[in-house]
Amino acid sequence: MKYMKPLIAANWKMNPVSKKEAEALFEGIKNGVKGASSEVVICPPFVYLSILKGLTLGAQDVYFEEKGAFTGETSALILKNLGIEYVIIGHSERRKYFNETDEIINKKIKKALEAGLKIIFCIGETAEEKDAGKRNEVLQRQIQDGLKDVIDIEYINIAYEPVWAIGTGNNCSVEQTKESIDFIRKFVPEKTRILYGGSVKSENSRAYIEEVGSNGLLVGGASLNAEEFVKIVKSAE
């Protein structure tokens, strides 16, 4: 099976705290990934989206209404008109801290697709769900409910991020990740890119591509170090 080239996405989350730092980090990454065969996407905080130039950009979230009186929110149309290509939807931190349900995530996906954005759709089980043997049940529900009545699946990339592995240093084993990604493939078109995310670093990134068979990576903390993130990108070559 031949997929598109690997997608390596950087999720900066709520970092860095200054424009100067954001520009320095971005330039370090941009210079380091020149000529890379992978598709590299940087997802900084909203306020930096309009000032960073030279690499594909993605937003970390989007609202499910087109415009209107929704203080603090950003619509898919605003992102599209800004030249943004990707958006992360359904990240576990949005689910946990902002009470996003599968229904809300589904509405966001549909609105983002209407605007012509490409999507990195995050799914994954918590430690409690994993220990209870409910991993597959959770993944199936999140996929089916999150993508309910979605037609343009070709614009969606799935990011498998076991919640217990995100930001903990306790990355998911190659064997467990392969099991999960093989399971996810049962519910999406065969050419859908499936990424892995969760304590990814340069020491383990190649294994998630070569041994697991994932089609890319969603990188959190390690993407805040330009040299480290460049190593991760190059490991997918």
What's the quick description here?
By secondary structure, the chain is α/β, with parallel strands linked by helices. Helix content is 36%, strand content 16%. The two termini are 18 Å apart.
Pick out its properties.
237 residues; alpha/beta; TIM Barrel; 8-stranded parallel barrel; 36% helix; globular
Provide structural commentary.
With 237 residues, this protein is α/β, with parallel strands linked by helices. The protein has a single domain, classed as TIM Barrel, CATH 3.20.20.70. It contains 9 helices and 8 strands. Strands 1-2-3-4-5-6-7-8 form an 8-stranded parallel beta barrel, surrounded by 5 helices. Helix 8 links the parallel strand 7 (194-197) and strand 8 (216-219). Helix 1 (19-32) runs parallel beside helix 9 and helix 4 (102-114) crosses helix 6 (135-146). It is globular, with a radius of gyration of 17 Å. It starts with 6 loop residues before the first strand and ends with a helix.
